[in-house]
Each structure stands twice: as C-alpha cells, then as structure tokens.
Amino acid sequence: MMEKTIDEIHDISYATANNKKVNTTVPLLENITTPADFKAISREHLPQLAEQIRERIIQVVSKNGGHLASSLGAVELTLAIHYVFDLPTDTLIWDVGHQAYAHKLITGRNQQFDTLRQYKGLSGFSKTKENPCDGFTVGHSSTSISAGLGICCAKYLNQDDSHVISVIGDGSMTAGLAYEGLNQTGDLKRKLIVILNDNDMSISRNVGALSSFLSRTFSAKYLQTMRNQFGAFLKSLPRIGEDMYKIAKRSEESFKTFVTPGMLFEAFNFDYFGPINGHNLDHLIDILDNIKNAADSPILLHVTTVKGKGYAPAEKNPVYFHGVGSFAVDTGKTSIIPHQVPSYTQVFGEQMVALGKSHPGLVAVTAAMPEGTGLMAFSEQYPDRFFDVGIAEQHAVTFSAGLAAKGIRPVVSIYSTFLQRAYDQILHDVCIDAHPVIFALDRGGIVGEDGPTHHGLFDFAYLRALPNMTVMAPADEDELACMLKTALFHNGPIALRYPRGRAQGVPISDPVVPLEIGKGTVVCDGDDLLIIAIGRGVTEALKARAQLASEGIFATLVNARFVKPLDEDLLLAKAGECRKIITVEEHVLAGGFGSAVLELFMDKGLTDLCVKRIGIDDCFVEHGPQKVLRKDYNIDAAAVAAAGRELYGRG
What we know:
Elements: H1 6-19, H2 35-39, H3 46-64, H4 68-73, H5 75-84, E1 91-94, H6 101-109, H7 144-157, E2 164-169, H8 176-188, E3 192-198, H9 209-218, H10 221-236, H11 241-259, H12 263-267, E4 271-277, H13 281-292, E5 299-304, H14 312-316, H15 344-358, E6 362-366, H16 376-381, E7 386-388, H17 393-405, E8 409-415, H18 416-419, H19 423-431, E9 438-442, H20 459-464, E10 470-472, H21 477-488, E11 494-497, E12 521-524, E13 529-533, H22 537-550, E14 555-559, E15 562-564, H23 568-577, E16 580-588, H24 593-603, E17 610-616, H25 626-632, H26 637-648
Helix pairs in contact: 5-6, 5-13, 7-8, 9-13, 10-11, 15-21, 17-19, 22-26
C-alpha cells in the first residue's frame, strides 16, 4: 500500500472528525442552564452537543437574521474553550462577537435565544451587562487583544492568576490595533492566550496532521518546563551562555517556522502553536489543556475553521451568510420579498458606477465592506480604481488623503459607526490641508438589530466640528445622487450621510445636477410653525406636518440638506417669520444638527425664539427594529407632531 502524504492524512483526519455520524436524539443543550451544566457533559458527548447547537443557531437565525456563518464555524472551538477553562473566573473575549452564538447557548441563554437581536432581547454580540461570562462588550473589530491585555494586567495587579483568552478572527487581524496589542503583550510578557480563528484569510498553507501533532507536542507542560529549564541552564554558562541560548532559540524557531506560519507571532514574543483543525474537538481540548498549564508568557494558538460549518448553503456562500436576514432553512434562500424601491446603499452603488464612466479620476475605497457599501459593481467595472484596504479605517482615510493630494478623487465608503475609528486621520491628514476626499457614510442614524455599537448617531457632531469639512444628508435618493455629484466637484473634504434601508421611491433626476453648497429648500409653507429637518428626519417631518395640518396647524417645512454650512439666509428669514421652531434629526442632540441651528440663532441675536429639538437624548440606543426604536426614542413623526402641538399651545 502506498504511503499517504501529510495532506492526505490531514484530509482523512478532518473528515473523520467532522463527518462521522453522531446521535443527536439525546437532549443535551436544553439541559444547560449554567456553565457548570456544560462542564458536567462527558467529553464523548461533545460532538453530539455541537450538532444540537448548530441546529439551534440555524433555527433562530433563519427567523431573526444575524451572523450565521461565523458562529457556525466556531462551535467546536467554543466548546473546547469552555471545557478547558472556567468561566466567568477565567475571562473570555470574543473579537467583534460575530461568532459568539454558541457561547451564549452554553452560558445559560438557550431559553432566551429565540429573542436574539429582537427588541429587548439578547444582543447579537457579547455584552457584559447581559451575562457574566461575556468578558468584554464588543461589536467593532480588532479590540480583543488590547482589551485582553488590559484585563490580564489588571488581574496581575489584583494578584488574580486566572486566565484571559482573546479569540480573534483572521479578518480582524488586518487592523493595526490588533498588532499594537500583540506588540505590547509581547513586551510585557503577560500570559495572554490569543486564539486566531482563521477561516478565510489563509495566513499560510495548512500543513495538516503533522502541524497538529507538533502543536500538541510543543505545548505539553513537561516540554515547556524542560525548555525553560534548559534555557536557564544555557544562560548560566559563563561567557558563552547567552550566545548558546540564542542559537538554541533560533534553532527551535527555525524548525517551527519550517512547518508552521508562526514566525510573525514569534517575532512579537508569543509562543506560537498551530495551525490545527478547529473542528477536531479532541485535538482542541488537548492543546488548550496544555496551553492552560504552560509557562507564564504570551501564547498564540492558530486554528483553522470553515465558515458556515454544518450548513451547506452557508459553507457554499459564507459572505452572504456572514450577516443574513431571515431565510428558509431547507434552501437557504431569503424569505424577504424583493422590494421595488432600492435601498440607499444600492442607489449609491449605481451612482458610483455611472459617475465612474465620465470621471476617470474617481476611485472607491472601503474597509472590508465592498458588499455592504454597495461597491461590488464598481469594483467589477473598474478594478484598478477600487481599493478594499481590509479592516483598517485609519489607513483607508490617510491612504485616500494621499490619493487626493495627487489629483485623484477618492470616495471613502464606510459605515458611519466605523468611520469613528479614523477620526484623527480625518482631522489631521484630510482636513488640515483640505484634501478633496469624499466620505460616503452609509448606515447613518438608527441601524436596527445590531444595536449600540452599530447605530450611526454621532457623525454630524464629530464631523461638523472640523474646519474645512462640509457635511450634508439627503432626504431621498434623488438628493443622494445630487449630493454625490456635488461632492465630486467640491474642492475640499466633504461628507454625505445616508440611512440604512429603503429609499423614498422618488425618481432620480436625469441629468443629475449638483447642489449649491450650503443651500436648503422649502418643502412647503405654513404660518403656525417652522420645522427644520435634515436627512431622514425630513420623512418624519413630512408625516408630522400632514397630521398637524389635519388638526388645523400649518407648518413651514425646510429641508436643510446641509449640516455645515447651514443656509443662514433661509433659516434666519423663516425664523423671523415664525418664532416657534422644531429641528428634526436622526442623531444625538449633543452637538448635532439642532445644536448647529441654535448656535446660528444665538450668534445672530435671535434670542426670543421658542425652539424644540427632536433627536436622541444623551444615551446609547439599544437594538431592535428601526421603526420601533424611532418610536421608543421619540424621533418619529408622532414625536414631531407632539412637539408641534406643544409649541402651538395645544398639548
């Protein structure tokens, strides 16, 4: 019989570990109400539990939507971590939290799991207020190593020798923050355990069974102890000790680098093990047991997993099933009825393609979100003018400043909540020299089921404070098209901010005409009230005005279009005509659009006005359907109408 290659051995072991039939009829998951209940399950029953967890995740996400593929891929890894470590005494941090659904299920949240991402239900991410086993509140990427090191150092100062485990995906390893965390961890030499869940980037070729064997062998406690003792012995040798130790260390590292991709992490002073198959529970538990008892130094375990593992449609199309809406389990097809009205994201993408034809200097830049920002068509049509920089918003902005400095016109398309991560770069690298970088802020305002880490409720405030910056927000898709063209011809930094979800269903002008910078428009006239709205707030203001009109209260409605600069002439003239004023925005009140309007009135000496601002109070907005959240946080049409009645003297 021919001898099998290492890769063939790995393929066989992978298939054996993942495709063997397991009995899923015995209920296990429903009996887990605490981490202790999980620890009581025998090791041989863990594959059975893994299958039940996958079924439960698929069942709930098919109804509620959510991050399916990443959570399915991390089931065995989750079970192994919980089996070896003792939560919440030990601290587990999931980077981003996309992959934490199995973790929620075995930490007492199975009975609530049907409320995942529902209003007042379970968060779609790890959240410390939700469960003590959630080691850190997350939602943005690449924070787990830095947070883990901070917790590790705090435990050291508190004389607490419990463990800290940070699980980070390969996508999150594209961000500089992750390497800043690695760098300081290696310098401080605290025992932080970092688990790299590699399911896409393929840092290097998976070398299979030999790699798994070497990792488990290298991590054994006796070998770690012997290595450290031998190192100390070499260092103690007179005159030649230090040189001998360095030679020995280099020899070991050279051998490990020959069969693993650990050189990068060893350079950060981490002991590296892997890559190993992240779906082989026995191997995972063995190596985590060894790592748990290893020497007091930083450790990185590299595991390879399959995104969407156990659900064929998600394995076949992990990008689609990364963050998915409701779908039919048997087919994987979406159960959402197609809508004739496009989303703002679709309109933006279509306009980018159209502008790209006549403006060869136009380029698109995004941070690992080409699908989410609507730029896939642009990337296919103009591949040389499309740049996906990975999860690296800071780099995206400074990179775009460099493009703009040499005559290229970059459009940086990033979700509002993620652009927050590049604030210094916007200020320092773009605004100081007034580089003509266009910021397309998708998901501005209430986002929905992803909650406080994803709502785009701070962009007006953090952008309008910057000199040289222009900020605008469209009321409908036609204005979005006009504003994008306006930005293209503007000689300075400019931002357009638009919401998640369907547009208003209005036709787009042909041809699309740029707007005059800083000019608003009167939507309709009335003598009793003045409503000044921006962006999606115009929609709610229109509904409110109609309701008030039916009650005999007639309002002038101004669509401001621009947060900065404001249309001073228009607003001052209308405020002079009617001194009862409502401002409407889907944004926090502090420093937002309403604040800008008040500043204008005060600066111009209009001190006898009666102004009511509609916006988000000083709080973080939780997760839930957009319509419900707008009502609950008093920024919908009913809230605007109530404010109108109050000002008019009827409520």
